Amino acid sequence: MFCQYCGTQVPDGNTNCTNCGAALTAGTTNAQSANTNYQAYNQAYSQPVNQMNYGYAQPMTQAKPKNAVNIFAIIATVVLFLSLLLPYVKALGQSMALIEEGSDRYFFLGVIAIAVLGIAVKKNVIIIIAGVIACFLTFIESTNFDKYNFFGLVEKGIGFYVMIAGAVMLLVSGFIKQKK
User: Fold this and answer.
1) 17 shares a domain with 40
2) Gap between the Cα atoms of 136 and 151, Å rounded
3) Average pLDDT, the chain
4) Which of 40, 93, 99, 158 has the smallest C-beta neighbourhood within 10 Å, fewest atoms?
5) What would you measure as the largest C-alpha separation in the chain, in angstroms?
6) What is d(CA 156, CA 91) in angstroms, rounded to the nearest whole number?
7) Separation CA 120–CA 107 (nearest Å)
8) Same domain, yes or no, for 39 and 86?
9) Is 30 a residue whose pLDDT tops 80?
10) Are residues 85 and 160 in the same domain?
């Protein structure tokens, strides 16, 4: 007789196949049907071990991909930082960067720190919060600039406009979905 699973010829009276160890049923079939069963057996057990289902109900899952880094937020944070170093105001032929000015620099450095934290932990919510704060501070700077510009002696420098661009970019970057 032949094993119905692997097709090996087995001496009559054996209860298990000598090749694959499968339990033999009474009246095991001829060589042709054994060969058909052998092909099914071979196909079932030729899968790689990590793809075989050993009767467990739960399929194997792949690890979750990591979130991508928000490149646009990094660029916006760098632009916002550069705005602190560029000439912010010009008065009487002199220019001054925001980093050289009073307490405003600490507020913007704090916003930059919050944005860096959001980038590091890959949470867009934190980046949005930093963007909202940056836009709010930029609005305050803009209104104060117009309020205290006596006789038009003070001009806005490139740092002022880069600060606006950086604040808006930071806010928008929080809403950008990154591909994973």
Assistant:
1) yes
2) 26
3) 77
4) 93
5) 114
6) 9
7) 20
8) no
9) no
10) yes
Is residue 6 a contact partner of residue 17, using CB atoms and an 8 Å limit?
yes
Domain-embedded: residue 66: no
If you search the block for the tokens 């406009």, which residue do you land on? Answer: 161
Cβ atoms of 100 and 54 within 8 Å: the answer is: no
Question: Token digits for 115?
Answer: 């944005």
How far CA 72 is from CA of 64, 94, 159, in Å, comes to 23, 33, 20
Alpha-carbon 136 to chain mean position: 28
Tell me which of 118 and 150 has the higher pLDDT. 118
* CB-based contact 140:132 (threshold 8 Å): no
Task: At 13, give phi and psi (nearest 5°).
Answer: 95, -15
pLDDT band, residue 112 (cuts 50/70/90): very high
Full residue range of the structural domain in which residue 85 is found: 71-173
Residue 115 CA to residue 169 CA, distance in Å, equals 12
| 53 and 82 co-located in one domain | no
Residue 88 and residue 28 share a domain: no
Structural domains counted in the chain: 2
Cα(101)–Cα(7) distance, rounded to whole angstroms?
88
Q: Give every strand in the sheet of 87-91, ordered side by side.
A: 94-97, 87-91, 154-156
Residue 78 to residue 74: CA distance in whole angstroms: 6
